[in-house]
Each structure stands twice: as C-alpha cells, then as structure tokens.
C-alpha cells in the first residue's frame, strides 16, 4: 500500500512540476521562481512524509487543530525512521508548515508554534493577535524569530471567504510591517468563484506591484490552485497552492 501510494504521489508531483515548468516557459519565467506548496488538509501524515521523501518541503494546512496533530505525527514518524536507520523519511525539521485557511484570533498562540508563515491575514485584530502570540513564543523559546505573513486580498468582498478589501490592503500591510513579531512577506489571493482567472490574477498582480513599491522585501505572490495555477503563474505568482492535483480528491473531514 505504501509503495503504491508513493508511486501515485511521485507521478502527481512530476505532473504538477511539469505544468509549472510549461507555464513558466510560456511567459519566459524560470520555474525556480515558483514555489510548490502542497495543501494536505484532510490527508494523513503518511502522505506528508511521502511528499517529503519526494523532495517537497512546503506543506499547507487550513485548520489549526488538524495541523497540530499532523505536525506531531510527522515528527514521530521521522523519529522512528531515524532510530530504525530508515533514510526514506527525511527529518521533519526540514518541512516548512504554512497556514492558509481562515484563522481565528484565539488560535494564534497555537499557530505560531508550528507555522513558518500565515498566508491568510486579513484584519487589524488578527495582526495584533499574531504579533502578541509570536513575541510570546519567541520569549518562551518556541520560535527563533518573527512569523512570516502574507496579507490576504479580497477581490469580491465576500466576507465568508476571508480577505481584506483592496482599498484597505495597504494600511493592513503597513500594520504587519510595523509589528515586531511579524515579517511582511507579500500577498495571497484567491480567484473569486465564477470569475475569469486571468482577470482576477491581473488585479492581484497590480496589488502586489503596489505593495512592493512601499515594502520592497514583500516579494511573495501566492496565487493559483490545482485548476488555475498556470494562469496565476502567467501573472507573476511565486507560490502555487496545490492540493487535488497532488493528492487526489479530498477525503471527508469526518464520517
């Protein structure tokens, strides 16, 4: 079973990397400019371990509770592999875990313990909660430094999907940049449901360029998922968030 799953994932990783390479070639970009972020929500820690074995280092989760358990499970698997002298699973410390889902402020203290980056920051109150949590975690020796942050842009104003309205995004980014526990790293966005992806990503690209004028170090542009990442790459995405194309159809979160 493990061998078959590894083969499935290996083939999927290669297909996705080929798609990224082709999308980059089409617009004269270097594929190394685009980071592949594996979205592993609802999939087991064993899949994360196999992805690590296949060379993927960036993993994303959407729910803190699931992420906490999965991070711990992957670490245990790495420890077992080390004791057994099994080299297939590389050290869990090499993995970079990202939070990409909507984040409640009361989960900030937990998230800063396992995530290197939060891509879904969309309000002043969340900025403040993450800043306090990250500084407390550093003081407690649970973090080595600030946590990376992407401000999430909303193109459709749908509060249920998260994101900061575009007119307010610059002010939100300034607030992140001024927070000592945070490090402003760029912008994340999702094409609205039913929207033409090229139009959405063109809007996001313009937002990213404006932000970079004020914050030159905030270079990350996280956009594009399994069905539309080629279009996102064409408009400058530096991080594609891929779940289904790597891992298959989503498993049910509960029976």
CATH top level class name: Alpha Beta
β-sheet strand percentage: 15-25%
Structure summary, number of beta strands: 9
By CATH, the topology is TIM Barrel
Order of helices and strands: HEHEHEHEHEEHEHEHEH
Major beta-sheet overview: 9 strands, parallel
Number of helices: 9
> What is the global morphology?
globular
Count of folded domains: 1
- Poorly predicted spans: 83-93
Task: Give a structural overview.
The chain is of the alpha/beta class. The chain has a single domain, classed as Alpha-Beta Barrel (TIM Barrel), CATH 3.20.20.10. 46% of the residues lie in helices and 17% in strands. The chain has helices at 2-26, 45-53, 64-83, 108-114, 124-139, 166-178, 197-214, 229-234, 244-247; strands at 35-39, 58-61, 96-99, 117-121, 147-154, 164-165, 182-189, 220-222, 239-242. Strands 1, 2, 3, 4, 5, 6, 7, 8 and 9 form a 9-stranded parallel sheet that branches. Strand 4 (117-121), helix 5 and strand 5 form a beta-alpha-beta unit. Helix 2 (45-53) crosses helix 3 (64-83).
Q: Could you give a short description of this structure?
A:
46% of the residues lie in helices and 17% in strands. The chain is an alpha/beta fold and 255 residues long.
Task: Write the SSE topology.
Elements: H1 2-26, E1 35-39, H2 45-53, E2 58-61, H3 64-83, E3 96-99, H4 108-114, E4 117-121, H5 124-139, E5 147-154, E6 164-165, H6 166-178, E7 182-189, H7 197-214, E8 220-222, H8 229-234, E9 239-242, H9 244-247
Parallel strand pairs: 1-2, 1-9, 2-3, 3-4, 4-5, 5-6, 5-7, 7-8
């Amino acid at each position: 079973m493990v061998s078959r799953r590894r083969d499935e994932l290996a083939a999927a990783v290669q297909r996705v990397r080929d798609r990224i390479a082709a999308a980059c070639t089409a617009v004269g970009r270097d594929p190394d400019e685009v980071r592949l972020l594996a979205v592993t929500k609802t999939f087991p820690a064993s899949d994360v371990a196999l992805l690590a074995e296949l060379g993927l280092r960036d993993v994303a989760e959407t729910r803190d509770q699931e992420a906490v358990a999965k991070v711990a499970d992957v670490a245990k698997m790495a420890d077992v592999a080390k004791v057994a002298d099994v080299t297939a699973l590389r050290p869990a410390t090499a993995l970079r875990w990202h939070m990409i889902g909507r984040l409640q402020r009361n989960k900030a203290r937990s998230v800063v313990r396992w995530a290197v980056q939060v891509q879904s920051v969309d309000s002043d109150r969340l900025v403040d909660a993450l800043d306090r949590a990250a500084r407390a975690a550093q003081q407690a020796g649970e973090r080595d430094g600030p946590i990376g942050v992407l401000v999430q842009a909303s193109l459709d104003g749908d509060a249920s999907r998260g994101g900061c309205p575009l007119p307010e995004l610059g002010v939100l980014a300034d607030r992140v940049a001024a927070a000592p526990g945070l490090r402003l790293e760029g912008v994340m966005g999702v094409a609205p449901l039913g929207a033409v992806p090229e139009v959405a990503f063109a809007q996001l690209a313009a937002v990213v360029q404006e932000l970079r004028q004020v914050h030159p170090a905030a270079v990350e542009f996280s956009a594009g998922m399994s069905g539309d990442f080629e279009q996102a790459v064409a408009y400058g995405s530096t991080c594609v968030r891929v779940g289904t194309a790597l891992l298959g159809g989503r498993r049910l979160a509960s029976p």
